[in-house]
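Dear Dr. H.,

I hope your travels went smoothly. While you were away I took the liberty of generating a structure for the chain from your last submission, since the lab meeting agenda had it listed for discussion. I wanted you to have the full record in hand beforehand rather than looking at slides cold. The sequence, exactly as received, is reproduced here:
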Amino acid sequence: MSSANDPRGDFPIQNLPLAVCRRAGSGEAFRGGVAIGDQVLDLGALQAARPFAGLAAQALAAAARSTLNELMGQGAAPRAALRTALSEALRTGSAQEARLRALLIPQSAVEYALPAEVGDYTDFYASIHHATAVGRLFRPDNPLLPNYKWVPIAYHGRASSLRVSGYDVGRPMGQVLPAGGAQPELAPTRRLDYELEVGIYIGRGNELGRPVPLAEAEEHVFGLCLLNDWSARDVQSWEYQPLGPFLAKNFATSVSPWIVTLEALAPYRAPWTRPSAEPPPLAYLDDVQVRRAGAFDLELEVWLDTARMRASGLAPQRLSHANFRDSWWTVSQMLTHHTVNGCNLRPGDLLGSGTQSGPKPEEAGSLLELSAGGKRAIALAGGESRTFLEDGDRVTFRAWCERAGFARIGFGALTGTVLPA
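The corresponding predicted structure, in token form, is as follows:
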């Protein structure tokens, strides 16, 4: 189909990401789907036709369900077999092209659900540029704590408030300490923020008590998505000591609907490096293959449009951009550290990378950084400005990989609109 050949599109045949969806407003059962161009291949309808055999058939049966957990738990081989079978069947002139064309639904006509039942969600803090910028706001003389360069820092988040793209986020309440005040008050947050993150879905799990070695870590990764860890910064600054994030983070986390598999990202692997003056990771977090190609050259963007901008017909404005390649820790290092104490991960579990910021000011992944903690207003089209999000603001994340001689691999959009408290 022509839309799959658009060089600026997100979903060429080399991508084939997975989601869970149904026809919008239909009341149909949710089932797996694969993006191809501007269409979705209905895997539930495809499964009814039994077009494949072997591992591909096994994977298709799991992918047609209302969540992708079963497919995730099957591991890499069935997923790769299904990907190969779909790629061959969707090509122009294939024996199954006509059958598959009849099962396509326009992406504009579908609605999405969370692609997996997420049992546990862990959010990392893997960008040293973000950690340094935020630390400098609160500890100008000592922005990075001593453990940061050694430990993949993380906290356990709240899986129950995960939502798929398009969810409208109500402004949360919490305890805040007014400027110059001596005691807190319960109030809607005045410093609502987004966090630009990469989500990592777990595929095959590990048994309790069995750590995952670094060399095997990616065998347990199903794929990547975009993640917005909405944050109430005034609530966070009052409550986070001594145990870290609580109400400031647990009210909503949004994920993009499409999961891009590691197979699709293979041409965009990048070396993982550290400056020579920095300490090397401990042995369990170091590996020749990780150093050679453990990072991903993944471009990330944040866009904002306000209620007034939409009413005036103004286009969304790009606030910042970053690259996942700059992360201090890789996907495999985060997973291995998570399990080094024997913690068991399960199919469908979700890891967040933490806010991804680059070394330049315009590469900041949050308003907290862009506005210097609320001290510097960001000018918007139409004469508005922002330090933090206001009611009616819509935040959109986008991501893609691009390299000469290879198809552009996109992640689609992750959107969320702020509603009043």
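Two observations you may find useful: The CA atoms of residues 304 and 326 lie 23 Å apart. The mean pLDDT is 96.

With kind regards,
E. W.
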